[in-house]
Design brief:
Blueprint (H helix, E strand, L loop, with lengths): L1 H18 L1 H15 L2 H4 L9 H16 L25 H13 L3 H27 L2 H12 L2 H5 L7 H20 L3 H17 L4 H16 L9 H31 L15 H19 L2 H16 L6 H20 L1 H4 L10 H18 L3 H29 L2 H6 L12 H6 L7 E5 L6 H6 L2 E5 L5 H8 L5 E5 L10 H4 L2 E5 L2 E5 L15
Helix pairs in contact: 1-2, 2-6, 4-5, 5-6, 6-7, 6-9, 6-17, 7-17, 7-18, 9-10, 10-12, 11-12, 11-15, 14-17, 14-18, 15-17
Amino acid sequence: MFSQNIAKVLTKLLVQLEQKPTTVFIVTLLILFYYLRFDQYISLRPISDHTWAQCDRASVARNYAQESMNFFLPRVNYTAGKTGISGLEFPAVNYFVAILYKLFGFNEFFYRATMLSLISGGLIAMMHILNQLLKNTLLSALLVICVYISPALTYYSPNFLPDAAGLGLILISWYYFFRSIKVPSTNYFVLFGITGALACLIKITFLISIVTIISVSIINLIMRSEKRFFPFHHSTKFIIISILISFLTFGWYIYAKYLNETYQSWIFLMAMKPPQSYHELIFDLKLIWFRYSNIYHTTGFYIISSVSFLLMMLNLRHTNKLLLAILIFLYLGTASFAILMVRQFTNHEYYIIALFPVFFFQLLVSAEAIKKYHKRKLIQHTLIVVVLATVVTSAITTRKFLKERFSIAGAVNSGTDSYLVYHDIEPYLRSLGIRYDQEVLSYFDYSPNVTLYLMNQKGWTIPLGKNESSLEAVLKMKADYIIFDERYSSVTTLPEYIKNQKIGQFKSIAIYWKSDTAKYKTQPPDHQ
């Protein structure tokens, strides 16, 4: 009786999945997010690995909201006596989040939720792409979730870096690419262009997909009419739109470089780091695999991905030729990107996110070929069971990973635990009468923005270990206050004339009045 009831429930769910695939898939994602404990992480301040990069992007959004909403002059907290204006990737997400801050008040929930919404939109779009070709909603949904449950991708989904948002937008662009082929509507072509442009502007590496579409469209132009992937005139539209996307993308990055040169900013890396030799390339690849293979994805996914590749090779004659062409160009583009940026890969696991379109399309090509060639239900059901098992095991592994990454232990392991004391210092600084726009010297911070952003202060960050001569040079900077973490007082000792101007203490953080320009409204309260 129990097994019969379970069977009835599953049957009803499958019927609902076929009738309302988007709704059911969204509910499934929400359940997955809850299982992964996103509800506990989505309001956290920047924490754990790559806090530096997180705070750089987060500071742009907050400076838009409280400094200037001029879209074309993004700012960060690190001013160094200047404006803080910095060139970076297209700050559309930062600007949107700034609008939310203005409407509802500052809360990093809005930033994390925006990022999670964008990647979720991409997953929904990819599910529809797979379902259009596989005609199996359950298998399509499972394949998308199977690719998504990567420790790296899930960690950066509700996060501050632009990579996951760019991935979501490029997957949506791929959806409109396929919709334009099936239903040649001007609206679909326009939406393909808008989402593709946003993806590439936000993260230039997603031009790999746009170049792939250009390449496939050119091949389609020169093929005989009976062998074309899609109508001839579609090719010209895709090529024109894709070239416009490329020009817009390079145009923005040229402008970003101009901002950095004009305002003497160095915050955001905008250069390639290729290996200098073949031996260096091999060394870097081994290092990357050793460091990040268990973060890029789970063992179950590596197995299913390897098997899918072998099955794809065995069923090449039965593959969809358009999908195969797309996959080949994605392989080439991804490999080229990985080689050009291999030095960055050694220290930045989130660079793998740019490669995820390859993972989606490889599983799609394999599943489509198997489904087309093996008509028996047993084969298809076996495929579903295997993918489902991979999803379950991957979810368990990823949940454990996220629990550690978003914890104090994760901050300790990443060497960012020293920043935790700054998470709630801002109200105390305001109680001393220190305004957010008054510049401070924040000691013992190698990053440009972490402590400044967490305190919501403008100014300088000063690394560990300044010698006496450089310390004197630092103290001549025209800041109003000094923020000094006394846990590192053995490394650098402030002069007595500075120590005599102490105005407050927050946990291990001492606050000193540095110049006559600093005004505070009341006597600083004793810190409890």
